[in-house]
Write a structure and sequence with these properties.
Elements (H helix, E strand, L loop, with lengths): L1 E7 L8 H10 L7 E5 L2 H9 L4 E7 L1
Antiparallel strand pairs: 1-2, 1-3
Length: 61
């Protein structure tokens, strides 16, 4: 199954609270941090919400 490699590239300062909460739900706390999440509809929605703050790569596992 494919996974998403998600890296936070920008700060959450001056972003809306729901966007901060979304990043926290993905497990991201600081710039440059990378997490791997399952590629499913829920995580794709999270990424779409904060697309301007993160970089996403698809990884075939």
């Amino acid at each position: 199954m494919a996974t998403l490699k998600i890296t936070q590239t920008k700060s959450v300062i001056s972003e809306k609270q729901y966007q901060r909460d979304t990043l926290r739900s993905l497990g991201l706390k600081r710039i440059g941090q990378t997490v791997e999440r399952e590629d499913n509809a829920q995580n794709r929605g999270y990424v779409a919400t904060v697309a301007h703050l993160v970089k996403v790569e698809e990884v075939d596992a």
